[in-house]
Amino acid sequence: MKEFGGPAIFLDRNDINTDEIIPAKYLTEITKSALQPHLLEDLLLDGRPFDNQSPAVQNARVVITRDNFGCGSSREHAVWAFEVNDINLIVGGSFARIFRQNMFNCGILAIELGKDDLDRLFAMKGDIEVKVDLEQSTMTAVSDAADQSPVSCAFKLNSLDRDLVAAGGWLNFADQRY
Description:
Blueprint: E1 5-11, H1 18-21, E2 44-45, E3 48-49, H2 55-59, E4 62-65, H3 76-83, E5 89-92, H4 97-105, E6 109-112, H5 115-122, E7 128-133, E8 138-143, E9 151-154, H6 159-167, H7 170-177
Parallel strand pairs: 1-4, 4-5, 5-6
Antiparallel strand pairs: 1-7, 2-3, 7-8, 8-9
Helix pairs in contact: 6-7
């Protein structure tokens, strides 16, 4: 079974769209790996450009964000950009429907949490590591700050989506089943 979690980055904004995840000018690339350096290249947070080349972003395996993540054009490239950057988990308040399904199809876990749980995560200080127990449908965020308590959250996932991500995506799932 695939493992989910790792170092986290926080994108504290609603409505981050697929053009901000991977700019449209890269949609002509013929390999997924060509998308890698351009993940979140055009993202603005609080009106300022996001540093997609920082060490924290380069080491991240988890993204924690707000509502309506992946809205805009329905393009699988946006999910591929996360996949080739080894992002295996995105936690948010909600996801655009097609984007969310593309994540599961590529073996990336999408966890939807309520506002209170997200606010607790965003209030954490220090470097955050997230661990997921897929069988128990729980995730725990742990800080390296000595005075910071872990934050645990329960999530819901339907059985097909759970099986897709556990297998590592649609192709692996189909190979195992058919």
